[in-house]
Amino acid sequence: MATINHHRENSNNVVxxxxxxxRAQLREAYEGRVPVRIMREKISPGWxxxxxxxMSAEFALVAEVSDAMRFDGFLAIAMSDVSHIEEDPGREFxxxxxxxxxxxxxxxxxxxxxxxxxxAQSAAAQTPLIALNMLDDTDAGxxxxxxxxxxxxPDALILQEIDPNANWYPxxxxxxxxxxxxxxxxTAYMLLLARLAGVPPIPLPPEALPAS
Length: 212
Prior knowledge:
alpha+beta; SH3 type barrels
């Protein structure tokens, strides 16, 4: 089958933002309500496609757009990790396709973008599952851990994970703040996973778990 030259990879139509620095450019994208693609080259080799829908001093919230031209969840990122941001080169197509699909720009009220803890807690208050995307020690990008937030420690978030077959883990794990690359929530996959998994069990204390 012939390789499709996807509209997003055509760099001839790229429009650069006027602002200098990632923060100014994210602000311009947020205020202009335009589809963008964001690169975090030290975190992940790929682009994040979507709309910037909220900002704080240190973080931005992106409403992601899937290849099917539908809004599919939210991604909270640290502005300091953004290496490049530009208007999506397929802006005209994206906007027309979203309109054709009757997709309205989602508004996620109540997400506190102060820090990773407030992001996770406010997201968990509105959706059953979140994904903690942790930095991989092998520089392979991010590893996603999906589950329900059960609490926080001074240096970490506590998550009861769910596996890809929608089975709850019996215990919880701690995920340290410095190792978090991003936090995702509200995707169709995570919502379906939560429906299949049902009510989570009460996490077992470490002493109740079988010896490894």
